[in-house]
């Protein structure tokens, strides 16, 4: 496939000021008439032909300024429409196309999901609706008329504000007209038509605009949208108060559909969501689901400014809207919930997804320099590392300057298609700083390493820290990065706040050179350095601290993130030592158990959510990432389980007592708030550890909990615990669950996922059976992700089976899916991204599976691109 390069960017030769769309919806024969007000772009090439993008379209008619064009005046095929000579002045094109929404299995462009017409245009789906200049730097004002059968599509929604609606007498059809006054790129276009229920509330913005917020869902499910509706309102208020951003239309609509390639989409005034991120009730959704709904509702809403009002010049700038908007939604969730616990979750996600990506063949800069298929660049690197860059910027310049810079960015770029340079320029303008060296974070892939060592001098009461940064894979010419290091010193009894260094301002040292050092004075006794507090930079830290020092941090650091991190590091050390073949170091493990016991005693009931995080050991993936090469997932699993056993056994009595203390009194009304969720999390973390150490007690407790659970969080946690214990109880529990939720697709997804992640021989065969289950469907992305996606991402021992059966299963699914939904197929295939880091036998099996996919004729561009890069 042809490569698109950032260096080749040039402005469009034409612009489209206004778009009038007339869409006549029909399940198989939808007609679209687009009237485009075109003009030559002063910044483009003079006399250039008009070349519009298309994808899978049938052209029915074409007129220029009202005159039907003769066939020799243009060239049309499924992929483009070219007018070799056209007026050098403003003119209108009227284009009539036909499409088949029912046949659209790619779920890009206009398609039907369970009978509901909906659209997905980002990145390049609009060209599947009509021929267009489908690029984000062409901004137009849209008026959309939508017409459909009244019976099957009583609700018809578009972008912007509703202006007209009516019946078409004698036809059984009706229509609505929508006008979106703010110019937008085509990727933000959307429409919806279907039979949907609605919940709504009115809201007055800080600017005094009276608006209506509405959520549309499958009939009968309106109650389950209440939490999402509330989350929209809270997001609006938060963005007004935190960033001074108010909503700008009269209506804000959210629609939930069941077939969706990703989480949700920020179409202007008409967000379309995967229903997984809208629908929630205590009986069907877990605490994690509620938190994800809150975060994604906020994320899409925040795009209204960071993405829609200020959009991207080209797709290389994707992090400009995605990294920034992830940062904004993380801040929102941190304000709504526990900031410390949320930060731990953010870092867990970054390490689980972005670090491995950045260490493998699919690594790319936060702002890529080239791509073959842009839809493969909606990655953890662009999103999560992109958010970390924004956070580092705030750490470097401080909160006040950061807010001023954001204001400046919005003011200077409102209504424009901007670049990363425009973003940084706003912060340079308000601070007077030169951020050109900081900008290097956008340019090169790979996770930097920072080695730190400390030396205490009792005579001078000073403590010196030496820093050295390195970037794997970056050539010798690569300039050092600007790395904010939040840090402090901790003594045997607590933080040493009297210790100071002139290199540390507001708790932050800025590492700008390849090597640097700083000295604290007034240090009364040998301290433990608390480095990268709050995970102040997305780096791997190599600090020569022993376990005793780390356990001091767990006990006394003022920074919660580093307290958690200390426990994670100790656990990682114990597990990797065992993987290397050293016996589990008895005294080390005992000291760890004792430290956790003390910690729980003091704090479990004070902050259960935090305690649950401390108890959750690093994942198998975290350990693999730490080991980095010749990875043996079976050895990691065994070592990790051995440590979990030690914890479960050593803490058993305390965990049982905690479970009692944290139990909700019967009849307590369910609340998804962070504090209640935290108590459930700790209670279930305790169950999990008890069950590894003492399977009989674990099974008994889990069975009782599964039977009596008053909410999905507790029921699912119990089932997950049972799922790890082979035997009759597990199978009965799974069967009962399936029966109870037979009519609940989102809950069945959880049932599929639990089984896909059982770390035992037999799981591959189980999945193959489940693929023939009547509720399984390859056409539903949520189903594919829950069964095959969770297997590939969250079941390392079985995915990496030594006979290659796990790789075969995923490879076959990728191939089976590619013909109908290449985007989801390509995403699934990224599970092979870390294949080079595996031990030899698995490495060659994984490579064989990848080559088998890559050698299949007729592959999509999406899968071809992942294959090519993975094998390069
Ligand atoms: N912007 C969309 C993602 C579109 C993905 C296209 N393949 C959702 C989001 O990040 O908010
Ligand atoms: Zn986004």
UniProtKB/TrEMBL annotation:
One of its GO terms (molecular function) is alanyl aminopeptidase activity. Residues 548-872 form the Peptidase M1 alanyl aminopeptidase C-terminal domain. Its EC number is 3.4.11.2. The keyword Metal-binding applies. The keyword Lyase does not apply. It catalyses: Release of an N-terminal amino acid, Xaa-|-Yaa- from a peptide, amide or arylamide. Xaa is preferably Ala, but may be most amino acids including Pro (slow action). When a terminal hydrophobic residue is followed by a prolyl residue, the two may be released as an intact Xaa-Pro dipeptide. Residues 446-543 form the Peptidase M1 alanyl aminopeptidase Ig-like fold domain. It comes from Methylorubrum zatmanii. This is Aminopeptidase N. Belongs to the peptidase M1 family. Residues 79-188 form the Aminopeptidase N-like N-terminal domain. PANTHER family: PUROMYCIN-SENSITIVE AMINOPEPTIDASE (PTHR46322). Residues 227-440 form the Peptidase M1 membrane alanine aminopeptidase domain. Its cofactor is Zn(2+). Keywords: Aminopeptidase, Hydrolase, Metal-binding, Metalloprotease, Protease, Zinc.
């Amino acid at each position: 496939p042809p490569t698109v390069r950032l260096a080749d960017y040039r402005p469009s030769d034409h612009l489209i000021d206004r778009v009038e769309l007339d869409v006549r919806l029909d399940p198989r024969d939808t007609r679209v008439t687009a009237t485009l007000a075109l003009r030559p772009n002063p910044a483009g090439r003079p006399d250039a032909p008009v070349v519009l993008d298309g994808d899978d379209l049938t052209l029915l008619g074409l007129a220029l300024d009202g005159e039907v064009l003769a066939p020799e005046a243009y060239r049309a095929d499924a992929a483009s429409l070219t007018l070799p000579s056209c007026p050098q002045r403003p003119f209108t094109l009227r284009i009539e196309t036909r499409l088949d929404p029912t046949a659209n299995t790619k779920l890009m462009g206009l398609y039907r999901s369970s009978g509901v017409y909906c659209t997905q245009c980002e990145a390049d789906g609009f060209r599947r609706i009509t021929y267009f200049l489908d690029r984000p730097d062409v901004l137009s004002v849209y008026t959309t008329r939508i017409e459909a059968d009244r019976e099957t599509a009583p609700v018809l929604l578009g972008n912007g504000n509703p202006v007209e609606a009516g019946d078409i007498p004698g036809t059984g059809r009706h229509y609505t007209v929508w006008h979106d006054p703010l110019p937008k790129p085509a990727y933000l276009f959307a429409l919806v038509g279907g039979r949907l229920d609605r919940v709504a509330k009115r809201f007055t913005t800080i600017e005094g605009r009276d608006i209506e917020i509405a959520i549309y869902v499958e009939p009968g499910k309106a109650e389950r949208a209440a939490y999402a509706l509330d989350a929209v309102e809270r997001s609006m208020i938060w963005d007004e108060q935190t960033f001074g951003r108010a909503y700008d239309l009269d209506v804000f609509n959210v629609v939930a559909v069941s077939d969706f390639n990703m989480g949700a989409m920020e179409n202007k005034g008409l967000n379309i969501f995967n229903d997984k991120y809208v629908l929630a009730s205590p009986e069907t959704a877990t605490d994690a689901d509620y938190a994800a709904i809150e975060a994604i509702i906020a994320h899409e809403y925040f795009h209204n400014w960071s993405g829609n009002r200020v959009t991207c010049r080209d797709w290389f700038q994707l992090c400009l809207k995605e990294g920034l908007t992830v940062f904004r939604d993380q801040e929102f969730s941190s304000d709504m919930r526990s900031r410390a616990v949320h930060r731990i979750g953010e870092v867990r996600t970054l390490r689980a997804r972005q670090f491995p990506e950045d260490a493998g063949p699919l690594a790319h800069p936060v702002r890529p320099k080239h791509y073959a298929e842009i839809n493969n660049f909606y990655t953890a690197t662009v999103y999560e590392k992109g958010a970390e860059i924004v956070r580092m910027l705030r750490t470097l310049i401080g909160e006040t300057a950061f807010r001023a810079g954001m204001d400046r960015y919005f003011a200077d770029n409102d209504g424009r298609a901007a670049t990363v340079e425009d973003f940084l320029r706003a912060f340079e303008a308000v601070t007077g700083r030169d951020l050109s060296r900081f900008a290097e974070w956008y340019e090169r892939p790979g996770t930097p390493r920072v080695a730190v060592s400390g030396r205490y001098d009792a005579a001078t009461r000073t403590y010196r820290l030496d820093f050295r940064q390195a970037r794997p894979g970056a050539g010798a010419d690569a300039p050092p990065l600007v790395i904010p290091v939040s840090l402090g010193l901790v003594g045997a009894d607590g933080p040493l706040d009297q210790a100071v260094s002139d290199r540390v301002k507001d708790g932050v040292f800025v590492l700008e050179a390849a090597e640097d050092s700083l000295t604290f004075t007034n240090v009364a006794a040998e301290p433990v350095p608390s480095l990268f507090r709050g995970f102040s930079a997305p780096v791997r830290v190599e600090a020569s601290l022993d376990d005793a020092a780390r356990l001091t941090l767990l006990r006394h650091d003022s920074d919660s993130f580093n307290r958690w991190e200390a426990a994670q590091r100790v656990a990682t050390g114990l597990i990797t030592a065992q993987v290397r073949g050293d016996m589990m170091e008895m005294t080390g493990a005992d000291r760890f158990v004792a430290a956790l016991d003390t910690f729980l005693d003091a704090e479990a009931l004070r902050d259960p959510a935090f305690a649950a995080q401390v108890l959750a050991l690093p994942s198998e993936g975290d350990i693999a990432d730490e080991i980095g090469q010749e990875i043996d997932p079976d050895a990691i699993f065994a070592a990790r389980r051995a440590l979990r056993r030690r914890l479960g056994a050593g803490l058993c009595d305390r965990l049982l007592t905690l479970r009692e203390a944290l139990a909700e009194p019967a009849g307590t009304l369910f609340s998804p708030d962070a504090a209640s969720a935290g108590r459930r999390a700790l209670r279930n973390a305790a169950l999990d550890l008890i069950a590894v150490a003492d399977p009989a007690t674990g099974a008994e407790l889990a069975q009782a909990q599964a039977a009596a659970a008053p909410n999905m969080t507790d029921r699912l946690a119990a089932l997950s615990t049972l799922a790890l214990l082979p035997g009759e109880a597990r199978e009965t529990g799974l069967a009962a669950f399936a029966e109870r939720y037979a009519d609940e697709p989102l809950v069945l997804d959880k049932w599929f996922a639990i089984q896909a992640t059982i770390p035992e021989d037999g799981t591959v065969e189980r999945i193959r059976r489940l693929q023939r289950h009547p509720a399984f469907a390859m056409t539903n992305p949520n189903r594919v992700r829950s069964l095959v996606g969770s297997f590939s991402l969250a079941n390392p021992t079985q995915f990496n089976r030594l006979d290659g059966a796990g790789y075969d299963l995923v490879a076959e699914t990728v191939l089976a899916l590619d013909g109908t939904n290449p985007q989801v197929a390509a995403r699934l295939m990224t599970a092979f991204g870390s294949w080079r880091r595996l031990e030899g036998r698995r490495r060659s099996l994984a490579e064989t599976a990848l080559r088998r996919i890559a050698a299949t004729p007729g592959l999509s561009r999406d899968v071809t691109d992942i294959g090519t890069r993975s094998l390069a």
